[in-house]
Amino acid sequence: MIKSSFTLAFLLIAGFGLAQARAFDPEASVVEIEITKKAYDYRMPWVTRNEQTHKNGILIGQNQILTTADGFSGQYLCRITKGGESRQYKAQIKWIDFYANIAMLDVSEPSFWQNMDPVKLAVTIPQSGDLQIYRWRSGRIEERAAEIIRLYNDTNKMSFLQHLKLSASSEITGAGWAEVVFDGAQLVGLTESAGKDNRFNILPAPFIASVIEQNQNADNPGLGNFDFRWMNAKNPALLKSKGLNMPDRGVVVTEVGGRRLADSNLKSGDVILAIDGFEVDSEGKYLDPDYGRLSISGLATRAHSAKDIISMTIWRDQAKQRIAYTLPRAQFSKSLIPSERYDAPPHYLVAGGLLFQPLDGPLMRALGKNKPILLDYYSDRPPLEGRDGIVLLSTVLPDDYNRGYEDIYYAIVDQINGQAIHKLEDVKSALAKPQAGFHCIQFMPDEATHQIVVDGTEMPNATERILRHYRIPAASSL
């Protein structure tokens, strides 16, 4: 009797375990997303083309389809298929966070949600062991095993944000498009990018959950970012030179406000000893209660939003001090050279065949190895005092009007007609004020060409002629 009861109990437990293992049905939770969008050529910024991107998404609640933001910039049509069916459902973006690389979609047609089963996000992430990856491929669910490599803090694929990430390895090919990663029946995260040696990065569920919570808030403060740089202090002489005799503690601040996000009470040369109650070691690591030693760079997004006040213990002027650091909101537009530009066409202005463009990350990447060395110089140096942006004379479209200047490419504009140029609007206003009938365009002192002069009276006619000749739809994107 006892043996029979034990056998029955064992079978019930085993059966329950099988039921748990089968609780997640990828065909009822994972969807395939097709995005149709406008793409731009930053070297000819008036040119657009259509592109399509395919990726994955997963249901996490009613009217909530989770995916990454990658591939959505410039989208004008988003369609979703489910269960391997050929039918497509039109989807809408409920919200999108390019800084965090996370988007939430919805399908308004009620029939889409029939026989679909949302999943739960994992509260914590395992630090070792095996995971499962799922995605749609050719009308079938493809499943691959993955092995955890490590958890660490690193830079987001879509922005300069630093946050918790998970690295794993798998035999799956072409990953990095929001493939869903599971530990049993819990969603561990979404793939963000793939690298060499079958490795790929995952946006982990705790980070995703914090972003979802923020974006559901009507007064979303956005994600914060530490706007300072630091160096390690492993060499004991570095700290001793500052009068600090605490081996293996602290990092030295080397730059403050490089992204111009907000004013800061940190100073270059400060030694950071603790952030948010966590001691900082000489390699810039802290001991996370859940995930062990991690870089302090991720503390800005660990349980925090922009505008939060974070306590820091620093060493300054031969003494320990406590300061309150207000976490600034991550914003591309604040930087001298914005690193990204999402959901917006490139800015440009054509005047007399002179193509003016603001310098930003997409233009730098479009130029690739062909960009002048000066652009790299200005992108890496500290922010220029008194300058809010950089405008280039990127190309001269040949015409009799601009004869002799055809070989000028990607030169940094300093002034036009005596007016300092920070942005494209400055170019437009300066060209409305010719000096003695001429336009004088001056470049930065370290450019090979110091200045050029063109006829101010003939410029409007030349512009119209050049637009027709080169089939440019508009003289400006402003």
CATH architecture descriptor text of the largest domain = Alpha-Beta Barrel
What distance lies between the first and last C-alpha atoms, to the nearest angstrom? 85 Å
Total E-strand runs:
28
Number of domains: 4
- Assembly type: single chain
Structural class: mainly beta
Strand content: 35-45%
CATH class of the largest domain: Alpha Beta
Alpha-carbon Rg, integer: 27 Å
Write down the CATH topology of the largest domain. Answer: N-terminal domain of MutM-like DNA repair proteins
Number of distinct helices: 7
Task: Write out key terms for the chains shown.
single chain; 478 residues; mainly beta; Thrombin, subunit H; 4 domains; 7-stranded antiparallel beta sheet; 28 strands; flat; disordered N terminus
